[in-house]
Amino acid sequence: MAIASFIGNISLMVSLVLIITHIIKPSLAVTSDELNRICSHTLGPSFCVQSLKSDPRTANADYRGLCRISLDVAERNARGTLTLINDLIAKEANPILTDRYTQCVVNYNSAISLLEDARQKFDANDFVHVAGDGSTAQVEARSCERRFANPPKDASSLSQSNNNVATLGSLVFYLAVYISSPV
User: Domains in the chain, start-ordered, CATH in brackets?
Assistant: First the structure.
């Protein structure tokens, strides 16, 4: 009797494992080639690869993990850019540039808020809205950059920071779209 019960339990467990492995898509770490392919869909592929590879979590991350990492890196870069802009405001004597920097503060406060919101949506598995927030954060960074299209020009590293945040926003968008699309 005990052996029959044991065999019944084993059969049930094997059946459950088989069912679960067919229902749940296995998540495997993204390869270096896949990482390059993913980043080729962003605004700055080399910065994208460099940013992801600089995070130790990337080595074992699947697409979902990369999306989380990209959210973290994007927010960190957006916060760093906001700090740079505030430093520029404090040092700038030209009122035209000061006004543009002040407008960029609005852009970056919005971008940071969007990325914080995206993290909450990520935790709720709402990847459609994560994609939207990533895309809009990208637009905010590019809006700041466009403010300096006409003279006087900004001579700081702000342009590169804007491009980096825009690249990371495009990465969040791409990964969230990929995750949310049907298998």
Answer: 30-180 (1.20.140.40)
